[in-house]
Each structure stands twice: as C-alpha cells, then as structure tokens.
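Page 47, continued from p. 46.
Same chain as before, 177 aa.
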Amino acid sequence: MNPSVHYKRWYEKNKHLILAKKKEERLNNLEEKRKYGREQYIKHREKILAKLRTDEHRKKAAVYSRKYRKAKSEERIKNKVVIDPEVKIKKWKDNQLNSFLLRKYKINLIDFRHLSNLQDGKCKCCGRIPKRRLVVDHCHKTGKIRGLLCHQCNASLGLIGDSICGVKKLLVYLESI
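Result:
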C-alpha cells in the first residue's frame, strides 16, 4: 500500500483530534505571538510608520476600504429581513411598557396582560373598558398590586389619598346634593 494513501486514511480518521490539538497549541502560544509581534513592531516601528504614511499605501487602503464597504453593504441588503413599520413600532412600545412595569411594579408585560384578561379588559373600579390602556393600581406602602384601573379611577383614587375615610366623606357629600 502506498504510504500517502495510508496517511490520508489515518488523517481523515483522526482529523478532529488533530484540529483540536492545533487549536489548543494556537491558544497556548497566543501570548507568545503577541509579545513577539510587539517586539517586532518596536524594533521596526519607523519603517512601518514610514510605509503607512506614503500616498501609495493610502490609495491602496482607500480602494480596499471602498471594496470592503460595498461588499458588506450588498451582503447586508441581501440578508436584510423587511419588517413592517407598524410591527416594529408595536414591538418597541411593548418593550418600553415591559421595561416600565418591571422597574416600577416588578411585573412584566405578560403578567400585566394576564391581569387585564382576568378583568376582561375592564377597570376594576368602574367596570368600563377604557379608551387608553389600563394602569396598575398598587398600595404605596406595601407595593402590592390591587388591580388595573382606568386613568380616571386611578387619578380619583390618588387624589382621595387611598383612604376609606376620604371615600366616605366624598360619598356623604355626593348624597347630600
């Protein structure tokens, strides 16, 4: 049998081991190569900088740069996925709302939508479906979420001060009229 045929078979059989070993050697020698490269740069610094300063080198670099940018631009255009602007805006708004809910109430958008579905999209206080989205009602002392309210009910509750006493006084006032 020809030795080269035997070697080819052996190489194909052990290719993954050989490549893994070469990669390990490259990684182990990486610091040494960097050190050697730095030493060579320091040793030949003036020659390297003089070459970089020539007009010929600048022109070659500019041509290469233009070709590279054009190729990358064409590649991006070819691989670009067209996203509907409305979908993009909705996704952005959802991300903004999710971020706000996590920061302020420690719930995510999924929990918010689950609460909204439990209330059938209606305000927990007045029972109406709001024109704008529902807002989170929470206890300012404990941080516990009580439910989702429309903007009017949430503002009214905030002005009363979350106190039962204030609600009773308001009720007495409305009944007296």
